[in-house]
Amino acid sequence: MEQNFKKQTIEISNKGFPLNSYGKTAEQFLASKPNIFSAGFQFPIMVLKDNALKHNIDRMARFCKSVGAELAPHVKTTMSPQIAQMQVDAGAFALTIANFWQAEIFRSFGFKKLIIANEVLDPTAIAAIADLNSKKAAEIIFYVDSIAGLEIIKKYTPKDGVQNLFIEIGTDNGRGGVRDLDLVTQIAKNISEDPRLKLRGVTGFEGAVPNAARTSAGEDSVTKFCQKIVAAANNAFLFKSESEFIISAGGSAYFEIVASELNKFDKPKILLLRSGGYVTHDSRYYEEIYPFRDSDDLLIPAIEVWAQVISAPEKDFGVLNLGKRDIGCDLHNPIPVARYSDKLSKFSGEIEKLNDQHGFMRSQEEFAVSELIGLGISHPCTTFDKWRLIPLVNDNYDVVDCIHTFF
Domains of the chain by range and CATH? Predict the structure, then answer.
């Protein structure tokens, strides 16, 4: 897979890359030892920091080992087979995605153990998943949270098909998932009575719990939700398939609570975390609430988007040539963290708002027209989807690889 990516051509559609890189293979381009600041990159440009990425993957792998958990990272965050391979090489049990289309992307790159963290009710997807499972071309698990949904799954699963199912547990005013534990038992029993269906476990997403926050009340809400998943697992366990029972949850904000509470399920199990955003971390949202924030072994922000000051018409005010088409702002606006003119240095300021192609920055520090500003992000998902080819850089901002995404 890696060699194949090295042979792919850099196209003009890969925004931000140097003009003289277009038409070259990634291998040819990397042989020129390009640097973000001196090789003619066009700004804005998103970069991934190699050492931070590798550290975060290792840090989460060590955490999972310490609590006896497996990890199925939610790779919808990056949609990058190269990064997913790094996670698998570090011991990932499976990959988590959001829908069957994403599953097919990763399956096309050789990943066969896949969890769709969602209900699947599209007839063609149901039939295709059943066929892949029955032929052992893949092992795909997806969610069910209702009898109505289960009947649709049954209807479109061929007679010789196989479905691997998680019962999703939810909470009032949250997202999908069963609210009533008696319904868990009903669904589990119904699954067990159909030879085409295999109950693989129960799951939930604590990040959807209303009012979850790093307060005592917020942590208590997450804890109670995890206890509900354990109670659901006790109801469902009697009806499990011959495979080892899986109990699962875990975004990138509360995974230590998840591990502690789900480990209290005292039957034979696989404890499976599904964190996704940890792989690149961020500079605000996760940074403020994630479990390692008070430790000496932190996750490190791995994403920066570099933009140019194209206008400074007022004191302390600058316009950057970057906007919503280049950087995510689903939770907070980007955060200025660095600058580059003739050398690299730290920088602080505030992005007040973003248009489609412009960012409006305030800073008490002096800055100049044409200077480059490096921005951290808050929550990585909607920054990745703006970029199809991303330079992977070392600490000196030399480009060491080109990371492909498939959104």
Answer: 2-50+299-404 (2.40.37.20), 68-275 (3.20.20.10)
